[in-house]
């Protein structure tokens, strides 16, 4: 998420009013996917194609390997936040929702410590990052 927000802050925003998925948004998605693949993360939870979700927001969601049905990547361009002085700042925000499967018998370990406990095999992890848009 951090890598996508960082890249998005330097990508031009002129194409965000075009219909469909802008080139700058696809570039952010590709960068996040490459970053995760280089880290050894299975990226099948990121949808292959983007969908416009309104308000300068695009999603790359999939139900593949996703118990909640909303796994994937959300990219928001030209979002406005207000800093502590009341000044409006344009930011790029990237939200990554990832299904994580417990490994190495985590459930058995928890049950050893707390016999009545049970942990499901998959939990949802979310990473969220926003960075200011650099002047274009």
Summarize the structure.
With 136 residues, this protein is an alpha+beta fold.
Q: How would you describe this structure to a colleague?
A:
The chain has helices at residues 2-10, 23-38, 106-113; strands at residues 51-54, 57-62, 71-82, 88-101, 122-132. It is of the alpha+beta class and 136 residues long. Strands 1-2-3-4-5 form a 5-stranded antiparallel β-sheet. Helix 1 runs antiparallel to helix 2. 24% of the residues are buried. The mean pLDDT is 85.
Features:
136 residues, alpha+beta, five-stranded antiparallel β-sheet, 3 helices, elongated
Topology, please?
Elements: H1 2-10, H2 23-38, E1 51-54, E2 57-62, E3 71-82, E4 88-101, H3 106-113, E5 122-132
Antiparallel strand pairs: 1-2, 2-3, 3-4, 4-5
Helix pairs in contact: 1-2
């Amino acid at each position: 998420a951090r890598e996508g927000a960082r890249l998005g802050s330097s990508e031009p925003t002129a194409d965000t009013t075009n219909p469909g998925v802008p080139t700058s948004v696809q570039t952010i998605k590709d960068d996040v996917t490459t970053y995760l693949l280089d880290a050894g993360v299975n990226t099948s939870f990121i949808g292959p194609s983007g969908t416009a979700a309104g308000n300068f927001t695009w999603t790359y969601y999939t139900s593949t390997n996703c118990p909640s049905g909303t796994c994937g990547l959300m990219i928001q361009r030209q979002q406005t936040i207000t800093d502590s002085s009341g000044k409006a700042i344009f930011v790029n925000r990237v939200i990554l929702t990832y299904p994580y499967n417990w490994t190495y018998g985590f459930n058995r370990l928890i049950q050893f410590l707390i016999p009545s406990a049970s942990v499901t095999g998959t939990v949802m992890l979310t990473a969220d990052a926003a960075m200011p848009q650099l002047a274009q």
